[in-house]
Structure formats: structure tokens, C-alpha cells
Amino acid sequence: MSAVSPHEAAGMFVADRPPHGVAHTMPQLLDRLAAEHPDRLAMQEKRYGIWQPTSWKLYRERVRDFAHGLAQLGVRRGEIVAVLGDNRPEWLIAELAAQSLGASVVGIYPTSIGAEVTHVLEVSQARIVVAEDQEQVDKLLALHAEAPPEVRMEKVVYYDPHGLEQYTDEILLDFTAVEDSGRAWGEDRHGWLDAQVAAGSPDDLAVVCTTSGTTSKPKLAELSHANLLSMARQLTEADPIDHRFRYVSTLPFAWIGEQMLAVACGLHAGFTVSFPEDASTQKADLREIGPDVMFAPPRIWESMLSEVQVRIDEAGALKRGLFGWGYSVMDRLAQARNGGRTPSAGLRLVAVLADLVATRPVREQLGLTRIRRCYTGGAPLGPDVFRFFHAVGVNLKQIYGQTEICGISVLHRDGAVSFTSVGQPLPGTELQFGQRQEIMLRSSAVFRGYHRNPEATAEVVTPQGWLHTGDAGYLDDDGHLVVVDRLKDVVFASDGTMYSHAFIENKLKFSPYVEEAVVFSGGSLEPGADGGGSDDVMCGLLTLDPATVGAWAEAQKLSFTTYTDLASKPEVHALIAEEIAEANEDLLERIRVGRFVLMHKQFDPDDDEITRTRKVRRNVIAQRYADIIAALSAGEESVTIRSAVTYQDGTVTERSLPLRIFDLAGFTVPAGRARRQVWSGRK
To answer: Are strands 481-486 and 652-663 parallel, antiparallel or unpaired?
Structure first.
């Protein structure tokens, strides 16, 4: 499709934004669910090994008590309450309570450090912060002691009192104490909260979500009740979800993805949300619940595949052979169904046996036996990973969207899943292409704007309601949207080929041994500086997956001490070289990786090298590792860097680290080495 300007694209439609058709706020939906299904399970949390249930009636009662408590603390319509912590029922209770008063919430990632917390509190002007535990309270107390005048934090309400018994700071309040106080306060104001909830409008601000912030400080996107609930309606129209579904909440509520499914879809459909006991028990709790619907970013699916690869590689030859046979049968079945074809009777019959002996045990191990709807988004998922899950009987779909459109606007449909596309627009979502094939979207889920940043809002939303996504893409022959990459990251080669660094990086990260990859050519990580010269060699900065590479090293009887030591081993370099050579076979010659270096450390969000959702900050990598990038581009054999080491006593020292640059120009895969199967880490 030929590109048109944003104004031309917008001009093809009427100037008014599509009506949202939403008649309720989320607290009003909660009231309705509590009235119609008081004893039905709304959510459950595992505590001390036992699932603690909460009915819709009890859920509403706790929300009302906490809402009264917030009102007693002075929270009023239009204000923002901040929540900092891991997923617990109290997170949702605080959110619905604030919304009941006409206020809204902004989530802060529990792994956020001082400057990140300060930025969100400063922009949101939140006076009340709901925090999870001692760790988060300590962050906030340290911030309060040195807070700039722009931070207006007055009270911190914590919901896990463990370790806080001796804290005497005046700004601290216990969550249950606020509930108790609110209950007593509300008894003298009968009907007051009902009036506040009834006065709520679907167009009121409900949630403020931070953007990914890959190149700068994150912006705060305002999402109304209508935005979120119209998105939920559109999603469930394309993929029916009802109250019988079960969902396990493991992703941060600060992320739009979790707000999208656990909160908006949860209230829209009335399904049960379950909270694992701890991060260390998530996998076991997932298997115990057996969710019907699931949403996870690519790193989760890649991690599941790595787990399968390790287990299969540890199995005996007979089991490996049996799984290989069963997988190939199920793969053919999945390919037929996704291609819109009816599998033959013979294939369906054999697939019953193949599923029984090979793929069903994998689903059981991963906790996906009952799964009916599952999604991935936030970043591209490698086609090979996608294909694996369909082959083992998991109905995985790619979704496409941004925080600014409530996380989803495009989705695969059942029986039409393409591993290289993101599907088709949801009902009620319009799609057009702007300049340089920029994807532009319009629907009732498009956000209200960036909080206290009208200039940035005007840059991304046209007066006609079109959202500039900043992504480049096109429609394939089946009318499915193919997302190439961020518009600023799209590269045009000298022959006119449009390609993406992210596509190459995902090819490399498909290897179970590669955790992160950053590729570039022309001596710069900035795509616009590539030049697209035919002589430029594609280079890569790679980090290892310490679990899988460590297991491989142990199997090879290769001793090592630290990650840095492991990454320096010649045998590991040869292993990764084989993986890159295999990935290169699926790439055009112009964009094949020719040189790489194994980094001495993993990329870390605390070092600003990746975001909390594990998106690489290319500008930080470019600045911090400029010497490595220059040496790769120059074709040098090695580069020496200075690395700071912090010891347990707090002392810091610097040391020199030589890093080998591996050139694949003279590398050949050992003769007779078969291509690695997708489900195995072995050659």
C-alpha cells in the first residue's frame, strides 16, 4: 500500500472520534457484579500455601472501606493516587477505591529506583502513595527525606506490615488501619460513597500508565474508563471471554498489559483473578490454577521454551526421539489449521496419539493444559518461538498496540495466525499508513493525552483522533499487519530493502543461549547513521543466558566461576558463532551478522541499559559501549574496556577486561552438524 501523509490519512474519515459506547465506570461494574453475583469468586491469593478467596461482595466491601479511608485522608475527584508494589489484591482494591472517588491511580514498577520513583511522583503530583512492603517503604522514606518541592507525597499506606512494626514515621499508615478507619468514617455518611460512584463518568480519568521510555524519561499516559472498557469490549468481541475463565496475575499492574486483561477485561467479563504467593512460586501456582486466558511479553514465552529445551535435552534418547516424532505430527496439524485448511482424518487421528505422548505433558509442565486464549505483546516474538507453542497445542496470538491505545489494537484471529504478522485490527479500530509507512490507528481506546504534557500529546494525536504509533509496517497478502520496527529504527539498505534491527535481534535471541542482542552497521547504533553502504558489516553486542549456557558448559565439563568468566571461554564463543551462523541462513545476505562480541555483563535495568519491560535503550548502549562498537566496526580482533567492580563491603575498584571480537568471515559450522531443532538446545 502506498504511503499517505497523516493529514491525508485523517482526511479520509469524518473528523469526530468514534463513539466509545461505554455506559459504566469500573467501580460501577464492580457494584453490578457484587449485586448480581455476590458469592461468585472475584479473586484469590495464595498465602502460606493456601488459596484465600475473595467474593465479589467482599471485594466491593473492601473497596468501599478503603475508598472511605482515602476520602478521610483528603483524596478528592481529579487527584491521582500512586501505587508501588507487586501484584496483590490490595493493589486492585486501592485502584478501584480511588476511582470510586473520581480519582485515578498511577502505577510504579516495584523494581524502580529513586530517580524513576521521583519522576512519576513529581509529574503525577500524587499526595498518597500505596506501597507494598518494607523494601518499597524504605525507598519512599529515603525519597521523602530529600524530596524536591515538586514531590507532594504526604502519606504512605503499606499493605505488607512485615518488618515495619518498629517504624514510627508520621507519614506511614497500615492498609488495614485505613480500611478500619474508613469503615467507621463511612458509617456516619450513609449514601455518600454511592453518590460519588454514581457521579462517575466513563470519560473520567481512570489509570495513568507510564510509557516504556526507551529514549527518555517515561511519559504518563492518561486512560479513561471508556478507553479501557471499550478496548475490553473490542477484545472480547474478537476473542470471547466470560466469567468462567481463570487468569493468573504475574505482570506488574504498572504495565498497560496487566491493566488491559486483569483489570479492564476482568471487570468486563467478571472472571477470577489469581495472585501467586511469591515470585519463586509463580510457575507452580500457574500449574495449580491452570488458567484459561494468559498474557505475557515475549521474554516469558522464550523462558518457557528454554525450560522445555533444558528438560528435553536432559531426557534419554528414547524420550527425545518420541517427542521429536510427536512434535513433527502436531506441527503439521497446527500449520494446516493456521493456514485455514482442514487437516486430513489420518493426520487428526495420529495427532491424538502424538498429543498424548509428546505435547500434552509439555503443556501440563508449563501450566497451560486448560489454556484457551493466550497473547504476547510489548515486543516482537520470534516466528520459531511462535511456531513451537502452536505445535504443542497452545493457542498463542500476537497482539499489537501501545500504552496510548490501551495496549491492544490489532490481534490474530482463530485459524488465521501468521507467525510473521500481528493480525488484523479489532472491531471498531481503524488503521491507515502515514508518511514512510507509519502505522496510524483510531478507535475509542485512544488515550486522553499525556499528563501535564499537551505538547507531546499534540505530536502523537491528530485533531481527528488518529494516533501516530511511531512504527513502520505494511499489510501482507492476507491483509494482516506486519510491523517492521520503530519508524526511527527502520533501515533502508542500498538496494532499497527495508529491514529492522529488531528483526535480526529476535532471530539471534531465538537461540536458547542468547539473552539479549543489539545489532548495528556503519559504526553507529542509530539507524539513520547507518548509511546503508553495501560494505558495512552487521555487528552484534550479545549477552548470554547464564542458565542455559551454564548448563551447556557443565555438560561439556567446562569449568567457570562468574558470568564474565563464562563469556570469555573460547568454547562459548564457538557455540554462539554456530547459533549466529544458523540464524544467518534465514536472513538476506545484506543483513547477516558478520562480527560479534560477548559482553562481560548482562544488560541491567538498574544501569538504564534496558527498561523494566526489557526493551533495550539503544542510546545508553551506544554511549556506554562506544569503544566496543568502534572496535567492532573497525574489524579489530579484540577490545579492552574498564569495568567497575563493587564488593560486598561497598568498596569499588576498576579493572581492565579484554573482550574478544569474533569474525564469522572465516568461520564454518563443523561438517555433519545438523541444524538444531526448535525444541532442543543440542546440535
So the answer is: unpaired
What are the strands, taking DSSP E only, across 117-159? 128-131, 155-158
β-pair partners for 107: 83
pLDDT score recorded for residue 15: 32
**What totals of helices (H) and strands (E) does the chain contain, helices first?**
24, 28
Residue 141 gets the label, from left (phi > 0), alpha (psi -120 to 50) or beta, of alpha
Residue 673's pLDDT is 67
pLDDT digits (tens, 9 = 90+) for 300-320: 998 899 889 888 988 889 999
Residue 87 domain-assigned (yes or no): yes
Residue 632 has a pLDDT of 95
Angle at 370 between CA 364 and CA 376, to 5 degrees: 90
| Residue 453 included in any domain | no
* In-domain check, residue 303: no
Q: What is the CATH number of the domain that holds 594?
A: 3.30.300.30
| Residue 314 counted as domain residue | no
E strands in 489-629: 490-492, 498-500, 514-520, 538-544, 593-598
Query: Torsion angle, CA of 612/616/618/619, rounded to 10 degrees?
Result: 10
Task: Specify the pLDDT at position 8.
Answer: 34
Residue 613 has phi, psi (to 5 degrees) of -100, 15
Task: Using alpha carbons, select from 293, 413, 290, 418 the residue that is nearest to residue 363.
Answer: 290
Q: What is the largest CA-CA distance in the chain?
A: 83
CA dist 90 → 83, 176, 264, 267, 275 (Å): 10, 10, 17, 16, 11
Write the single-letter amino acid at 24.
H
Instruction: Report long-range pairs for 448-454 (Cβ below 8 Å, ≥24 apart).
Output: 448/205, 448/222, 448/223, 448/224, 448/227, 449/221, 449/222, 450/219, 450/220, 450/221, 450/222, 451/80, 451/123, 451/124, 451/208, 451/219, 451/220, 451/221, 451/222, 452/123, 452/220, 453/219, 453/220
**Enclosing domain of residue 251:** 23-292
| Identity of residue 469 | T
The CATH number covering residue 111 comes to 3.40.50.12780
Q: Which ranges of 468-588 does DSSP label H, i.e. alpha helix?
A: 501-509, 546-555, 563-567, 570-584
Sheet (strand 424-425) strand order: 293-296, 373-376, 396-400, 410-411, 424-425
**Total domain count, the chain:** 2
Q: Over the stretch 509-524, which tens digit does the pLDDT of each residue have?
A: 888 899 999 999 877 7
Look at residue 646 in the predicted model and tell me its pLDDT. 62
Q: What pLDDT is attached to residue 480?
A: 95
Alpha carbons 105 and 151: distance in angstroms, whole number: 16
Integer Cα distance of 190 and 610 in angstroms: 49
The DSSP H or E segment spanning 56 is helix 56-72
- Are the CB atoms for 63 and 96 separated by under 8 Å? yes
β pairing state of 430-433 and 438-442: antiparallel
List of the chain residues with pLDDT < 50:
1-17, 529-534
Q: Has this prediction a pTM greater than 0.85?
A: no
Q: 271, 230, 280: which is closest to 373 by C-alpha?
A: 271
pLDDT at site 10: 33
